Amino acid sequence: MRKSISVGVLGCGYWGPLLVRNFKNLANCDLTAICDVSEVRLKHMRGLYPDVEYGTDHQQFLNGSGLDAVVIATPVKHHHALAKASLNAGKHTFIEKPMAATSAECEELVEIAERKGLVLMVDHTFLYSSPVRKIVEIAQSGDLGDIRYINSRRLNLGLFQKDINVAWDLAPHDTSIILHVLGEFPVAVNCQGNAHVTPGIEDVTNMSLSFRNKRFATIQSSWLEPRKIREMTIVGTRRMIVYDDLQTHEKIRVYDVRVERPPHYDTFAEFQYSYYYGDSYIPRLQQEEPLKVECQHFLECIKEGKVPLTSGRQGLQVVKVLEAASASLRQGGKVVPLISEPSTSSVRGTLTTEFVEKVSK
Ligand SMILES: NC(=O)c1ccc[n+]([C@@H]2O[C@H](COP(=O)([O-])OP(=O)(O)OC[C@H]3O[C@@H](n4cnc5c(N)ncnc54)[C@H](O)[C@@H]3O)[C@@H](O)[C@H]2O)c1
C-alpha cells in the first residue's frame, strides 16, 4: 500500500478551512498540521479538528511536522515568502490565487520548484468545475467554430480588500478561464477603473485582453454592485455559450445562433446579413465539488510526478496579465503590450474525465 501524503495548511481565515475539509476527507492523505498567526482562528479550527497539530510559527510548521506538502491560503502579500520557504524546505506546494504579488516573485517560485523537482500548483478553482470543463470540451471539439470574443462579468457588493484591488481579487478567476478556453496568452492588456471607497484601491475595473487574430476578451470586476453576477459569454463563429455560475441546474446553455455576411453582392439592395437561429440546449453537468477534484489532483501530481492542470507556470501567466492591467490602470487605460509567452496549453498538465469520474464516486 502507498504511504499517505502528509499535508499542512497555512492560513485558516475564510478559504483555508474549505481546503482543510477537502484534504481531511481524501483517502491517501493525512491533514496533519495547521498554522495561522491568529490564535482566534486556531481555536476555531481546533474545535473542528482536534486531532491536528496547531501552531502560529510557519518555520516550526515547515521544519517540524514531517509534511510532504503545504497549502498556502493567506493574503496574497504573504504568498511568495511562505511558498519560497515551503519549497526550500522540500515541500510540494499549493498556493491560492493569485499566485503572488508580482511576476518576478512567481518566476522565482517556478524556478525553485523545477530545480528541486517539486509540484507547484495554483488554486484556479474554476478550471476544475464541471461548467468550465464542459465549455473547454465543447470549444476543443470545434463545435463553436472559431471563438471571436469572450465577455465576463464578476460583480457583487464587497468584500473590500485592503491590500489588493478588485482586479487582483476577482479577475484571476476570469483570466484563468479565458486563457484556458482560448489556449493562448494575450498580446496586450488595457484596463480602466476607479477607487471609489478606499483611496488607491480600485473597486471597479474593466479589463480588455487582446489576442492574435483580432480575438479579444473583456473582464468586468466590481465590489460596488447591488447584485451578485457571475456571467460569461463565449461567442464563436458557429455557436455561442452563456455560462451563468449562479444558476443551480442550467449553468451553461449553448445557442446555435450565428450571423453571416453574404460572400459577395453587387448592389446595396442585395446586401443582407443572414441571421441563423437554431435550437439552444443545456448540456448535462456532473455534480462534484471543484475543490475536491482539485485537491485530489494535487495529490495525484505528487504521487505520479505530474504537472498540474493549474501549474506554477500557468499561475505566472495569470499574474503577468494582472500586472499589465495594473500598469495600464496607472496610465489611464493605455494599452500595455505583453511579451510573448508559450501557449497556455503548453504550460499546464491535464485532467482526464476518467480521473474526475473516479473522484466524484
Ligand atoms: N480559489 C478561490 O475561489 C478563493 C476564494 C477566496 C479566497 N481565495 C484566496 O485565498 C487566500 C486567502 O483568502 P481569505 O479570504 O481566506 O483571507 P483571510 O484574510 O480570510 O484569511 C487569511 C488567513 O491567513 C492568516 N495569515 C496571515 N498571514 C499568515 C502567516 N504569515 N502565516 C500563517 N497564517 C497567516 C490570517 O490570520 C488569516 O486567518 C487569498 O489568496 C485569496 O485570494 C481563493
Please characterize this protein's 3D structure.
With 361 residues, the protein is an alpha/beta fold. Helices cover 34% and strands 27% of the residues. The chain has helices spanning 16-25, 39-48, 58-64, 79-88, 103-116, 130-140, 166-182, 290-304, 312-330, 353-360; strands at 5-10, 29-35, 53-55, 69-72, 92-96, 120-123, 147-157, 188-194, 204-210, 216-222, 224-236, 240-244, 252-260, 274-281, 336-337. The strands form 2 sheets. The protein has a 9-stranded mixed beta sheet. Strands 3-2-1-4-5-6 form a 6-stranded parallel beta sheet, with helices on both faces. Strand 2, helix 2 and strand 3 form a beta-alpha-beta unit. Helix 6 (130-140) packs parallel to helix 7 (166-182). The two termini are 21 Å apart. The model has no long low-confidence stretch (mean pLDDT 95). The site of nicotinamide-adenine-dinucleotide has 22 residues, from loops.
In terms of quaternary structure, what is this?
A: single chain
The class by helix and strand makeup works out as: alpha/beta
Computed Rg: 22 Å
User: Helix fraction?
Assistant: 25-40%
- Name the strands of the widest sheet in spatial order: 14-13-12-11-7-10-9-8-15
Please write the string of helix (H) and strand (E) elements. EHEHEHEHEHEHEHEEEEEEEHHEH
**Binned strand content:** 25-35%
Main sheet attributes: strand count, strand direction, barrel closure: 9 strands, mixed
Strands, count: 15
Number of helices: 10
Q: Bound compounds, please? A: nicotinamide-adenine-dinucleotide
Q: Average pLDDT value?
A: 95
Gap between N and C termini:
21 Å
- Form type: globular
Low-confidence stretches: none
